[in-house]
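For the sake of clarity, the format in which proteins appear in this thesis is described at this point. The record quoted next illustrates the convention:

___
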Amino acid sequence: MRVFVTGASGWIGSAVTDELLAHGHKVVGLARSDESAAAIEAKGATAHRGDIDDLDSLAAGAASADGVVHLAFKHDFSNYTGAWRTEHAAVQRMLDTIEGGDRPFLIASGVAAGVSGRPLTEDDESPYWGADSMRGGSENLALDYAGRGVRAVALRFAASVHGMGDHGFVARLAEIAKERGASGYIEDGSNRWPAVHRSDAARMVRLALEKAPAGARLHAVGEDGLRTRDIAAALGDYLGLPTVPVASEDAAAHFGWIARFFGLDAVASNVRTRQLLGWEPTGPTLFEDIAAGAYALPE
C-alpha cells in the first residue's frame, strides 16, 4: 500500500514509517523542511514537501496515496485555538479529497480523561466537536466520513509514548525537575497517565492501517494508568532529586504549560484494540525506560 504519512519525521511518525516500510508498504512522508525531507528519504521513503497549513499540498499527498496516516499537529501552546483550527481545516481537506474511494484515513488523537470514574474505552465517543474544540474536533470530523466512503479510524495515543530519545511530556517533566531541584507531582499525585512504548504504538498503527474497520476507535495504550506521583518518583530516583507535591494553585507556576495535562486523570483500556487487531504491547514499560536512562539530562 502507498501511504501518505503526515508527521513522518516526528517522534511517533518516524517509528510508524519504519514499521510500514518493514512490512512492505511504501511511504510518502510530509516534509516541511530540507532536514525533515532528508530524514524521511534516508529511511527509504519518499518526501512530499509541504506542511499542515498548506492545504493544497495535503490534498495532493492524500490524492496520490492508497491510504493516509495523519500524525502531524501544530504544537503551538501559545495559541491553542489557532492550532485546533489548523488541524480541523487540514483534516477536512484531506477527507474531502479521498471521500468515496474506500481508502483508510487514520487520525491521531489522545486519550482523554476517564468517564464517570471508569477507564475510557474504545466505545466512548470523543466529547470534542468543531474547529474551536480540542484538536479541532478532528477525531469526530474524521469518523463522520466513515459512512461516506472513507475507512476512517481514530488512533488515541497514551499521554506518554516513550522510548529512548523521547522529547515529549515525560522529557519535559524531567527538565522541570532539574530546573526546580525536585521532581514534582500535583496534589496527592493519585491521578493517572496511560503509557505505551513507541515501538508498540507504531505496530498498532500499522495493524490498524491493514485491518481496522471504518469507524473504529483504537487505544495505543500499553499501561492503562500510572500514578503521576510514581512517575515523579521514578524520575526523581534516576535524577537523584527529591520528590515533592505541588499544590494545584501552584501547578501552573511550577510546571508551566504541561500542568494542564499532568493534572488530568486519564485511565484507558486497550482490551477492544487488542482483540480487534491481535495486538499485544511487548516493549519496555515507562519505568523501565526511565531507569534505563531515556530521560537522562545533559550536565
Observations:
- The two ends are 45 Å apart (CA to CA).
- The CA atoms of residues 77 and 257 lie 7 Å apart.
